[in-house]
């Protein structure tokens, strides 16, 4: 299963990277969303898959799966939600102010240096 | 939004109440079964989002006249107060205490300061989700 | 490293910190009592502190010292340790004493209606506190911290009139040069602490012999001296001081003549016991000092601005003190001699330090009065002011004659002692002085001649000669009484110390000298300063200075062309400007090379770095030895979910409409939450499910208004190919990491601790939740803080625009 997961994670990262390198701001945001999915699965896979039962004490005799990656991912999910929504609003406001979502046109001016 | 969403609106009213109740259940159960502040808070805000879908922003704002920024602040305050409260008992930051009590109606219950901390998380999550959605919605 | 107990705040700590506390209230006082000059409220502090420090004179004079310790970062050996011996006390008295006079003077100098007094006094107090901290702290790191604070407050004070371009230039220049030195000094301190295994100066002094043999010794010596030389404006780092004269005159008198620029001298004196064994120490300090003396006095003569003359004269006097300290270092090599003649150099250094503070302070204040009452400091416009400002004239005469080394003022005494020391340098039998020693008295003499000339220029060009009222902005008249009191006090001190030098000798100078040269116990020497030594070589030197100096002053018009020998573009200032401009151009060029302004470029850097660094690491660590056994079994629905995710991830690349991409992203999210269910993570599954729902709603809400996805026809084939290559690289690397981490477990997981203790310690059964709210609760705490900030950011992004929009409407 870990090998299958490795391939899935690889594909998720690949298409996330491709999306983030494109010019449209929406595609970049979707890319970051994919990237966080990939990262979550990566953390989970690193901890080992299905090596025990659900980490609830008393529900079964154990051994339990590693609870630490799960705690990390839970934090990461919520943070990535915050980041994504901030990105979304930045994109939305950028479009309202400047009328474009093309990253090439959003480049900083020379005089701003 | 069209106005003839009666079925949606009726269902949303009932469903959101149920969801919020469920979120409270899942929040309190967090220490023993899957759940906790994050999921609870997200579920509760999901319920409000459902209401938003069924009605419009103003109606929902009338139904629940809450300033969600204050909810965020209150949540952060509760959490940080719980975290630093341990200092007053000469314990390191973040030390929790718990005890088992026999309460009327509930029976054998564990009371835990971690619940207070989680309550902060719950409120912050509701607060930020709704702040985000409300501000975006208002700007249109 | 030694660990000290955390102790109480001693009165010395309070004395150091009190200016900082008072500074907090200055803006409030300024607002509340606007009609009274803020300076009056500040004035009491240095007076109280001065009296407080005077109380220690007796105790310290007996060879005792005060010390107290306060824990700051004890684990690193950094503690707020204060230590007051003779040297620290001398400086503390100077800082508070001159500080009180300067504040009194500033009350009349700065107009309370036109100037932003609160910022001025806040900066001044900041300086006073940090300077006190500098001279009283025993810990090198604390000393460094206060050192940089003085640089910073000096920067703020020079730039006080920040609307003037010269002020900004001067402030920046002083900051760049002194902070450059400060940083190198920090490096030296760290090296020193490596060698001695302590940051305490007193403990370092105890291990002088061992330190000198350490290979890092020379490096640390050079770095620390760079700091001292930049701060004390030694050649060739002196160029910042003349530009610092853009500061208000009280500041110039205080920081840039009496106290801050002497921090370098303090440091050299303080660390003399540690470094003086080295011949390099002697050579560098003595020669830098004497060069600075000659160059500073030579340059002072050609200046036309009164304050510029004083600035260069300060530079040259600092050089003189520095060279004396260098010569005094030789005393350590003659411990067996009955009466150590090189000791006298240190005595002269300390004595001149005090004298310089008195006469230069009074001269600066007099120059400030001239500026204030006539509107100019240009000596070409000034002249004949003697009749209008008799008191200022008297003060200037006293100050300038003392500076020139004329009897009966205190400058004469220390100048004589200086000549004595320089002549004795030639008699040294160490450091190759037999060949080069003779240069020292010659250069000292040449420098003194120029000192005489510019002292005369200050007095005679300003106050005698033809009165030129048409060139002055104001009608000259004598300054108000309050403005005259501080320079009059200083000028009287010049006379008093001139006639009764032994007032200082046993009270202040002896303990200070004992602190610089601790090897010689206090009982061994008695300092006695006298006017008449008989017809010695020093007396002839002084007579020569007066004769030649007068001659040069009279024939000034005939020889002033020598200043054109060195072309302007070779001057140090031009070199500094060129260097700065070159560095700016260079850094802009380098930045432009890789900072293109396109987010894509930066992402490409990140991803390429990711691929290369991780690829190399994996290869070097031989992490490709995959272990394909011991994997979890694969079930059918897991395969189905995997296929769905993989296909969706690829399909999303070709999605034409934004709705499709959002829905596909949501689908992937739901599939991931199914994975969480299968992989025994119910909490994650729940959270992911709800958050995906809300995210999709959010996406739809935002992109309801956004345009269609940019037409991807603009993207050329090469562009897409590049992106594809990079992204395939990233994907492959990540997949390899996933495989490798599965096959190579480098260490045991720490999770067992959580599993075992979740119920006993935290009373919970859901281990994930227990970790979140209890074991790693601080993470969660910060996480919700971050979320709160994100929500505030979003709120601000949208609402601030509305506010501006309404503003626009109002304007229309």
Strand content of chain A is under 5%
Most extensive contact: A-C, 88 and 101 residues
- Main sheet summary of chain B: 2 strands, antiparallel
Poorly predicted runs of 5 or more residues of chain B: none
- Can you tell me the CATH architecture of chain A? Orthogonal Bundle
Please give a structural write-up.
The complex is a heterotrimer of chains A (113), B (140) and C (812). With 113 residues, chain A is mostly helical. Chain A is built from three helices and no strands. The longest helix of chain A has 32 residues, at 67-98. Chain B is mainly alpha-helical and 140 residues long. Chain B has one domain (6-138). Chain B contains five helices and two strands. Chain B has a two-stranded antiparallel sheet. In chain B, a hairpin with a 3-residue loop joins strand 1 (98-103) and strand 2. Chain B is flat, with a radius of gyration of 18 Å. The two termini of chain B are 13 Å apart. The mean pLDDT of chain B is 82. By secondary structure, chain C is mainly α. Chain C contains 33 helices and four strands. In chain C, the strands form two sheets. In chain C, strands 1-4 form a two-stranded antiparallel ribbon. Chain C has a two-stranded antiparallel sheet with strand order 2-3. In chain C, strand 2 (71-73) and strand 3 (78-79) form a beta hairpin. In chain C, helix 4 (86-109) runs antiparallel to helix 12 (249-258), helix 7 (165-196) packs antiparallel against helix 10 (217-231) and helix 14 (279-301) packs parallel to helix 20. Classes of the chains: A mainly alpha (113), B mainly alpha (140), C mainly alpha (812). Chains A and C meet through helix 1, helix 2 and helix 3 of A and helix 26, helix 27, helix 28, helix 29 and helix 30 of C.
Short description, anyone?
The complex is a heterotrimer of chains A (113), B (140) and C (812). Chain A has 113 residues and is an all-alpha fold.
What does the secondary structure layout of this molecule look like, with pairings?
The complex is a heterotrimer of chains A (113), B (140) and C (812).
Chain A: H1 2-20, H2 25-46, H3 67-98
Chain B: H1 6-28, H2 37-54, H3 57-63, H4 68-88, E1 98-103, E2 107-112, H5 113-139
Helix pairs in contact in B: 1-2, 2-5, 4-5
Chain C: H1 11-32, H2 38-54, H3 57-61, E1 66-68, E2 71-73, E3 78-79, E4 82-84, H4 86-109, H5 117-136, H6 140-158, H7 165-196, H8 201-205, H9 208-212, H10 217-231, H11 240-243, H12 249-258, H13 263-275, H14 279-301, H15 306-329, H16 343-374, H17 390-404, H18 410-425, H19 433-436, H20 439-463, H21 481-499, H22 502-516, H23 537-554, H24 556-559, H25 572-594, H26 599-620, H27 636-651, H28 658-678, H29 682-703, H30 717-743, H31 751-762, H32 767-775, H33 777-811
Antiparallel strand pairs in C: 1-4, 2-3
């Amino acid at each position: 299963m870990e090998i299958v997961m490795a391939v899935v994670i690889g594909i998720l990262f690949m298409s996330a990277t491709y999306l983030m390198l494109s010019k449209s701001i929406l595609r970049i945001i979707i890319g970051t969303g994919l990237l966080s999915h990939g990262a979550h699965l990566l953390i989970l896979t690193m901890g080992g898959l299905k090596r025990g039962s659900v980490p609830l004490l008393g529900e079964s005799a154990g051994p339990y799966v590693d609870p630490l990656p799960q705690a990390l991912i839970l934090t990461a999910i919520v943070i990535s939600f915050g980041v994504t929504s901030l990105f979304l609003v930045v994109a939305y406001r950028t479009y309202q102010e400047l009328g474009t979502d093309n990253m090439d046109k959003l480049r900083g001016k020379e005089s701003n240096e | 939004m069209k106005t003839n969403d009666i079925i949606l609106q009726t269902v949303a009213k009932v469903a959101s109440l149920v969801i919020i109740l469920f979120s409270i259940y899942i929040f309190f159960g967090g220490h023993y079964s899957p759940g906790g502040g994050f999921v609870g808070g997200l579920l509760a805000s999901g319920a409000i989002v459902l209401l938003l879908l069924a009605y419009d922003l103003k109606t929902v704002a009338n139904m629940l006249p809450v300033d969600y920024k204050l909810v965020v602040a209150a949540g952060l305050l509760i959490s940080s107060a719980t975290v630093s409260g341990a200092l007053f008992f000469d314990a390191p930051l973040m030390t929790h205490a718990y005890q088992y009590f026999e309460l009327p109606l509930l029976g054998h219950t564990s009371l835990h300061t971690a619940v207070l901390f989680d309550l902060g998380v719950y409120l912050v999550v509701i607060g930020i989700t709704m702040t985000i959605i409300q501000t975006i919605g208002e700007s249109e | 490293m030694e660990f000290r107990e955390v102790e109480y705040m001693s009165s010395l700590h309070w004395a150091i910190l009190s200016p900082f506390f008072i500074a907090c209230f200055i803006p409030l006082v300024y607002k509340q009592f606007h009609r009274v000059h803020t300076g009056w409220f500040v004035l009491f502090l240095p007076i109280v502190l001065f009296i407080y420090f005077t109380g220690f004179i007796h105790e310290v004079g007996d060879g005792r010292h005060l010390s107290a310790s306060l824990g700051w970062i004890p684990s690193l050996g950094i503690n707020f340790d204060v230590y007051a011996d003779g040297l620290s006390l001398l400086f503390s008295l100077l800082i508070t004493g001159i500080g009180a006079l300067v504040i009194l003077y500033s009350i009349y100098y700065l107009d309370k209606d036109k100037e932003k007094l609160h910022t001025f006094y806040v900066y001044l107090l900041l300086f006073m506190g940090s300077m006190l901290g500098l001279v009283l702290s025993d810990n090198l790191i604390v000393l460094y911290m206060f050192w940089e604070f003085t640089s910073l407050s000096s920067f703020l004070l020079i730039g006080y009139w920040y609307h003037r371009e010269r002020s900004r230039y001067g402030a920046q220049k002083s900051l760049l040069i002194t902070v450059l030195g400060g940083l190198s000094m920090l490096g030296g301190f760290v090296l020193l602490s490596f060698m001695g295994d302590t940051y305490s100066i007193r403990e370092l002094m105890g291990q002088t012999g061992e330190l000198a043999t350490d290979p890092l010794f020379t490096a640390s010596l050079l770095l620390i001296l760079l700091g001292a030389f930049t701060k004390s404006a030694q050649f060739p780092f002196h160029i910042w001081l003349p530009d610092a004269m853009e500061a208000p005159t009280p500041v110039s008198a205080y920081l840039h003549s009496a106290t801050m620029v002497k921090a370098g001298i303090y440091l050299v004196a303080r660390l003399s016991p540690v470094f003086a064994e080295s011949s390099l120490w002697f050579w560098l300090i003595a020669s830098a000092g004497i060069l600075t003396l000659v160059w500073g006095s030579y340059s002072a003569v050609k200046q036309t601005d009164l304050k510029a003359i004083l600035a260069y004269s300060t530079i040259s006097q600092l050089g003189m003190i520095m060279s004396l300290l260098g010569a005094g270092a030789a005393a350590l090599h003659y411990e067996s001699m009955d009466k150590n003649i090189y000791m006298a150099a240190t005595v002269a250094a300390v004595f001149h330090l005090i004298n310089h503070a008195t006469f230069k302070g009074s001269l600066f204040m007099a120059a400030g009065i001239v500026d204030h009452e006539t509107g100019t400091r240009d000596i070409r416009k000034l002249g004949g002011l003697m009749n209008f400002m008799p008191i200022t004239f008297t003060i200037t005469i006293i100050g300038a004659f003392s500076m020139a080394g004329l009897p009966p003022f205190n400058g004469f005494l220390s100048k004589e002692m200086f000549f004595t020391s320089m002549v004795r340098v030639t008699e040294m039998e160490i450091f190759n002085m037999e060949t080069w020693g003779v240069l020292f008295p010659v250069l000292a003499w040449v420098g003194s001649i120029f000192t005489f000339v510019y002292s005369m220029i200050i007095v005679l060009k300003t106050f005698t000669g033809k009165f030129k009222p048409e060139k002055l902005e104001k009608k000259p008249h004598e300054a108000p009484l309050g403005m005259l009191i501080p320079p009059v006090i200083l000028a009287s001190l010049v006379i008093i110390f001139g006639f009764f030098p032994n007032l200082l000798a046993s009270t202040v100078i002896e303990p200070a000298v004992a602190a610089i040269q601790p090897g010689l116990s206090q009982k061994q020497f008695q300092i006695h300063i006298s006017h008449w030594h008989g017809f010695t070589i020093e007396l002839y030197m002084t007579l020569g200075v007066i004769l030649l100096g007068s001659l040069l002053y009279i024939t000034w018009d005939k020889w002033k062309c020598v200043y054109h020998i060195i072309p302007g573009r070779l001057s140090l200032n031009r070199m500094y400007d060129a260097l700065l401009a070159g560095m700016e151009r260079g850094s802009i060029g380098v930045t432009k090379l890789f900072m293109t302004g396109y987010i894509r470029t930066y992402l490409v850097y990140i991803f390429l770095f990711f691929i290369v660094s991780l690829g190399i690491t994996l290869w070097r660590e031989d992490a490709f030895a995959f272990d394909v056994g011991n994997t979890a079994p694969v079930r059918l629905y897991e395969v189905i979910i995997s296929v769905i995710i993989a296909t969706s991830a690829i399909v999303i690349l070709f999605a034409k409409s934004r709705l499709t991409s959002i829905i596909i992203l949501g689908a992937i999210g739901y599939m991931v939450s199914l994975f969480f269910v299968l992989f025994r993570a119910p909490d994650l599954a729940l959270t992911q499910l709800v958050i995906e729902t809300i995210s999709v709603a959010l996406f739809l809400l935002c992109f309801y208004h956004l345009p269609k996805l940019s037409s991807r026809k603009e993207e050329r084939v090469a562009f897409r190919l590049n992106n594809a290559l990079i992204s395939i690289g990233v994907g492959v690397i990540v997949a390899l990491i996933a495989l490798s981490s599965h096959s190579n477990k480098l260490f045991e997981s720490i999770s067992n601790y959580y599993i075992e203790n979740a119920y006993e310690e935290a009373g919970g059964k859901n281990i994930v939740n227990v970790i979140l709210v209890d074991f790693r609760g601080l993470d969660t705490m910060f996480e919700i803080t971050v979320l709160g900030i994100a929500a505030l950011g979003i709120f601000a992004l949208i609402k601030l625009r509305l506010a501006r929009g309404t503003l626009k409407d109002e304007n229309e």
